[in-house]
Specification:
Largest sheet: 5 strands, parallel
Oligomer: single chain
Bound molecules: adenosine-5'-diphosphate, magnesium ion
CATH class of the largest domain: Alpha Beta
Order of helices and strands: HHEEHHEEHHEHEHHEHEHEHHHHHHHHHH
Helix content: 40-55%
Radius of gyration: 32 Å
Distance between the termini: 64 Å
Number of domains: 4
């Protein structure tokens, strides 16, 4: 049978599957697609399509020799592998959604980083390749390496809780996490420099970039790590100017081995700060130091930051984090609950994961709020409490209250039978319960007086009017009774929660 691209690639996948972990296989190989199989002068060449440039970097970095031996095995000693990468255009105005590149899966021997090849290939395409690393400018002089300068101690400012261990992996952050871990294991030594992590609020950017810092601190204690937000950087730079300490500021930054700057979009409009950061960036990058950045949006969407800085942000790797899927939200809730040593029923966690969908910080906040309420008001942490507490977070999505539900709650409160409230009896305690229920039926539902009357044993609408007036009067004049009515109102409010 004739060998097709699909078949050849499937054979490769069989080999690869035996050589990498299940997780790596799923992350890095499953998303690849066979594109073409061609007969070239020297032999067969197989082209696979990669979902993004990120994969190209990653495969070259981590699986180069595995891919080479696999392809040789499947296609013979002259077999070659090529990648097709679709690169998103920055300029959406052209109406063309992307441009494609064809890359040999092989680095030339004289170019260990694979950079020149990539840049050379890229040069045919206009500069709109969003995450494509341009080749770093050469010849930036580095006046900052002062021989013999003594290192001052730099406090890392890391939050020790933000570790990889505590970071739950899901489809929403898998690539970003893998890249972050690779960087942490080899800061400055991967082609992911700088690493720019971007995405909306509360999706774990700060956690992940600090995890890199904590990992490096734990495993390479001699490395100087610094985490700052771009606001801190700005404020401290302004202070340095005011106190004539700009050169100290500069020197301090130039001795960092791993510099992590959070929320770089806040550099927007701060030209002096950007300029200072530009020089620090160049100095560190040239010396092979690792730079890790986060932003709340893709670099091409950041406004008010100089082009030369934005383009540097994209020299290395840009990866995004997205909103977590249901399973990841559940996993995060499980983890947080167990970290806090609390046992929360599955249905409550599911309720939360179903209703809080966009943001991990909110999910965490909801859990904390739930526990706080449980402790504060000494209530069981159950679904009723969960619904109650999370109401303003998720909005009231319940069906409107029904007359039957009102009758049930009121009768439970007064300990009378629901049947009696719907019957003709004139027993005093039943009459009271019936009036209260009628009052709430009028207050809380949109039913007409007539309909309400019908629900109470076919009574006339004037009976409902009378009941309502009587309850209102007593609420106004009798504080003990007012409290009774408030308690019932609360119970009705909680009826289904
Ligand atoms: P961002 O910087 O993107 O706004 P953060 O990193 O501050 O978000 O995350 C918000 C909260 O959610 C933090 O407490 C963080 O620990 C938690 N969090 C975010 N993503 C995860 C994750 N994947 N696993 C565990 N906790 C997470
Ligand atoms: Mg953050």
């Amino acid at each position: 049978m004739e060998l097709t691209a699909e078949k050849a690639w499937n054979e490769c996948l069989d080999v690869i599957r035996d050589n990498v972990s299940v997780q790596s296989y799923r992350t890095w190989f499953e998303p690849l697609r066979a594109a073409r199989l061609e007969e070239m002068n020297e032999g067969l060449s197989l082209t696979v399509r990669l979902p993004s440039r990120f994969y190209f970097e990653w495969l070259e970095e981590h699986y180069f020799s595995l891919l080479r031996s696999t392809v040789t095995r499947v296609l013979g000693p002259t077999g070659k592998l090529f990648y097709d990468v679709t690169i998103e255009k920055e300029d959406v105005g052209t109406g063309n959604s992307g441009s494609s590149m064809h890359l040999p899966a092989r680095r030339p021997a004289n170019e260990p980083q694979g950079r020149a090849l990539w840049a050379e290939r890229a040069s045919g395409t206009p500069q709109h390749t969003a995450s494509l690393p341009a080749s770093p400018e050469h010849g930036i002089s580095n006046p900052f390496v002062i021989p013999g300068i003594r290192k001052v101690h730099v406090e890392s400012r890391l939050n020790p809780n933000y570790t990889f261990d505590r970071f739950i992996e899901g489809d929403c952050n898998r690539l970003a996490r893998s890249a972050a871990l690779a960087i942490a294991q080899n800061p400055g030594g991967t082609s992911f420099n700088p690493f720019l992590l971007y995405g909306g609020v509360g999706l774990g950017k700060t956690h992940l970039i600090q995890a890199i810092g904590n990992y490096v601190q734990a495993n390479a204690p001699a490395d100087t790590v610094l985490y700052v937000s771009s606001e801190q950087f700005t404020n401290e730079f302004v202070q340095a100017i005011q106190h004539n300490k700009v050169s100290d500021f500069s020197l301090m930054y130039r001795q960092i081995d791993l510099l992590i700057i959070d929320d770089v979009q806040f550099f927007s409009g701060k030209e002096k700060t950007q300029e200072e950061f530009f020089h620090i960036f160049n100095a560190l990058h040239q010396n092979g130091k690792q730079i890790v950045l986060s932003a709340d949006r893709a670099p091409r969407d950041i406004k008010g930051v100089e082009e030369r800085l934005l383009s540097r942000f994209q020299w290395g790797l840009s990866a995004d984090v997205q909103s977590p899927e249901f399973e990841t939200r559940m996993a995060i809730l499980h983890r947080k609950a167990s970290e806090d040593g609390i046992d929360i029923a599955e249905d409550i966690l599911q309720y939360m994961a179903h209703n809080i969908t966009s943001n991990i910080r909110e999910l965490e906040g909801a859990l904390i709020r739930l526990l706080a309420h449980g402790t504060l008001y000494n209530r069981d942490v159950d679904l009723v409490l969960a619904k109650d507490v999370l109401m303003d977070l998720v909005g009231d999505t319940r069906a409107p209250v029904t007359i039957d539900q009102i009758q049930r709650v009121v009768c439970q409160y007064f300990n009378v039978s629901e049947d009696l409230v719907r019957a003709k009896t004139r027993k005093r305690e039943v009459v009271r319960a019936r009036q209260v229920a009628m009052y709430f039926a009028k207050e809380l539902t949109h039913h007409s007086l007539k309909t309400i009357g019908l629900h109470f044993g076919g009574r006339d609408h004037s009976t409902v009017i009378h009941a309502r007036r009587s309850i209102k009067n007593q609420v106004e004049t009798d504080s003990a009774f007012r409290q009774v009515v408030e308690e019932i109102a609360h119970a009705i409010e909680l009826r289904t929660r």
